[in-house]
Fold this protein.
Amino acid sequence: MARSKPRVKVPKTASKDEVITIKTLISHKMESGQRKDGDGNVIPRQIINKFTCEFNGKPVFSCDLEPAISANPYFQFSAKVPESGTFKFTWVDDDGSVYSTESDITVE
Amino acid sequence: MRKHAGLLAAGAATMALAMTGGATAEEKRVEASDGVVFTVKAEPPEGHPLTEVLSGFEFRKEETQDIQLDDFQNPGFLWVERGEAIWNTVEGEAGKSCASCHGDAEESMKGVGAAMPKWNEALGKPVNLEMQIDLCRTEEMGAPAYKFDDDAQKAIVTYVRSQSRGMPIDIQTDGPMEAWWERGKEIYYTRSGQLDMACANCHEDNYGNHIRADFLSQGQSNGFPTYRMKSQGVVSLHNRFKGCMRDVRAEPYKPMSDEFLALEVYVAWRGTGLTVETPAVRN
């Protein structure tokens, strides 16, 4: 796959203090560093090593990823929404790239 | 011999699950998160060797099924997205993309994948999606044909066939296609390899039984190209054919060979009554 592409699914609206479900997925090969190519050389590790989610600058969810996690890591978690604002999602790649995307939510 | 297995009112874009459209009680349908309905268990057409036609979906664990039915979570859709980008990318000397001729794939490609392989008068043989796309590339676009199982090829094939999601498999088996159907049938029942097994020995005689730690399915092709957890990518049908032949310790036919093409025709017909699930998710 070419460059990694994040996808997120966050409801557009919620009621105050509602617990919503957030789904995220990023296309990534998650090369474990344990495999060899056709010539017997080790294929260097390249994984997404960290994922974070913030809401209006406050941390909501974060985790470190390990080499055994399969390609295209998918996360689903819940968050309580106290006010309107923006969720910011960030994925950090071993090669130093940082992928991020944002979603707005309105509290009605 | 061509039968619309009287399942769905043809052309009904939106179907409620409750609508049975002449269906029997034996049918089973499931709905994906985007509202597309798959028939995963169907009545076989006339002259079919099986008592029921089951999609590979039915042989997978619920967790795997759930991933397929959630179009956000289904990793096959990453390939669909990639295919969409290729669809709109100009390649070759003619300065054309797929979209230059075919416009919006959601309109122009609807149902195309469900009817493949299809008879091609000029070539005097059926063509499948991979071959048709290569014909477009070499004859219309002035672009090179894809190397078999090139990532881009898998992506564009997945994209085109996914435009038929939920549509019934509708393959022509009469007229000039009959000889190909017959040849495919012959290959399906011919034992080969060190293990001396035919397709039918697993997928007809033993579906639902274990093969080592896995369940044997009926070997239906309606979900191809399929996202396989094992390879963490989409797998093309001819690659799967090759894999099966390797597993019985046979010398596989070549991808896109007449043998595999005939087999593709016959296997597609065996799935009559099912719907296209591309990109399906399997173990």
